[in-house]
Amino acid sequence: MPRPLRVAVVGAGPAGIYAADALLKSGAAADPGVSIDLFERLPAPFGLIRYGVAPDHPRIKGIITALHQVLDKPQVRVFGNVDYPGDIGLDDLRAFYDAIVFSTGADADRALGIPGIDLDGSYGAADFVSWYDGHPDVARSWPLAAEKVAVLGVGNVALDVARILAKTADELLPTEIPPNVYEGLAANKAREVHVFGRRGPAQAKFSPMELRELDHSPSIEVIVNPEDIDYDEGSIATRRASKQADMVAKTLENWAIRDVGDRPHKLFLHFFESPVEVVGEDGRVTGLRTERTALDGTGNVAGTGEFRDWDVQAVYRAVGYLSEEIAKLPFDLDSGTVPHEAGRVIEAGGRHLQSAYVTGWIKRGPVGLIGHTKGDANETVASLLDDHANGRLHTPSAPDPEAVVAFLGDRNVRYTTWDGWYRLDAAERALGEPEGRERVKIVDREGMLRASGA
Prior knowledge:
By secondary structure, the chain is an alpha/beta fold. 33% of the residues lie in helices and 21% in strands.
């Protein structure tokens, strides 16, 4: 009797779940069907939706509702708290599945090679995001003694970091932040937050809605220097070609011409300031040095030789996420991605690594919004199904769905399930109910495992 196509997905964030959805919606879902197992190193699924989105953005977290519908399908199983390759490796997966899709994402900080970046008080934005989002594998406390803070970068992550640093803890209390994060933010000394971009308003990577949300807080005064509103021919062309870029520029223009109000926390958006050094004394951050830049006519900038020192005691770099290497797969260190052709993993000799595929940020790099991963998933799944139809997939030695369950049991892997997520979800909602909050996130791994019934 023909059996279902067995597919393993390593990483249960949006990219992995969209890949599962694409498989379910494809012709492979017909008789004899498809059977999909998602492996996630954390006890809970959803990846950066749970651990990379700011807690005061419930609109984006609402995407979880759509992802739920995929994981509710009977053809899909979730194995949480399972590490690749520590608990299950590539050869193990090959024994159980016809194909393996890697969707491990990107959750580390990209490096910034300027002097002083390693000083005490200089942080990666991804680490800070993991802390305030209650990631189980990071420290429970965060140093927030700086009164003046610099954030390097002009993307949405930079905005999230700046906004969380500038808001009061009480403003964030209605969200799902756990007690340790509330206590840490309540002790936050920051009164000035400075966001720096080396190019101009037309080149900022903010989403218009994310940018406007900065101004919604009663405690944050957003300030833009009128001298930073400048455009060249390349910038004008960018605005004409992109409605988003034009909306961002208009918002910044309006902020630049208004009077500065009296809200207690000041959030400055600086443009044409290229960070060249994190200044320090006795091993700690004491300032930031930038070089003023100027547009060159194409939308790019060049240094002017004019430098300025900014009085800050902490620096957060939000210059991009970086994927980690995946064991047994080729990796391009420059792009931080796995080499591929239409999602097929390509080895150094140009040959497809049989039955191995990638999707999401590990495939295309950490750019674009969550929705862009759908296109990635569709392309990758199309390649997988083409290989399946043409006999190019390998044949697993133990395709019975219970074989992998027995394997994890023999290795004493304490894994969570999709039913376990429902138990964890109920436990977090119960914690929030007495305070009138939707949920309070359980932070420590052991607590998550207990609540999940692992």
